[in-house]
Specification:
Layout (H helix, E strand, L loop, with lengths): L2 H15 L15 H17 L4 H12 L2 H28 L9 E2 L12 E2 L19
Antiparallel strand pairs: 1-2
Helix pairs in contact: 2-4, 3-4
Length: 139
């Protein structure tokens, strides 16, 4: 095996070995400090890097609730606003990762509960466009 293949095998093996475990009933307040820190850091990193997923998410959700014209107009505008919001909140999560706080954004990642609208700091905004997904617990 040449050096390049060995290097790639080492990188892939270390990535697989460093993956964390998932627990179905894990609550944020029950975790230790390092676990909460790494969770908040990864949320901030992924929200900063993948905030643009809010644009197609809002187009799809509003098109499903209203019609395709409203989805392509209002959905794009709302998606851009949520993209900026998710990216800024992600950067704030990265900066404040060492400080234990509640989640700033729900759902924590843009691909989680895709049919659910994004909420910041637990605020429920009124309006016909606000829908919550089937997995939403109302918090």
């Amino acid at each position: 095996m040449n050096r390049k293949n060995l290097y790639i095998a080492c990188i892939l093996s270390s990535a697989l070995l460093s993956a964390g475990s998932a627990y179905a009933d894990e609550h944020e307040h029950d975790r230790g400090y390092l676990s909460a820190l790494s969770c908040k850091f990864t949320q901030g990193l992924f929200n900063t890097a993948t905030g643009f997923i809010e644009i197609p998410k809002n187009v799809v959700n509003i098109s499903h609730d209203q019609n395709i014209f409203v989805g392509l107009t209002w959905g794009v505008l709302r998606g851009v606003a949520h993209t900026v919001g998710r990216t800024v909140v992600g950067a704030a999560e990265l900066i404040t990762a060492p400080i234990p706080t509640d989640n700033y954004i729900s759902p924590p990642y843009p691909w989680d509960r895709f049919s659910e609208d994004t909420r910041y700091f637990g605020a429920h905004l009124p309006g016909f466009w606000t829908t919550y997904g089937p997995l939403d617990d109302g918090k």
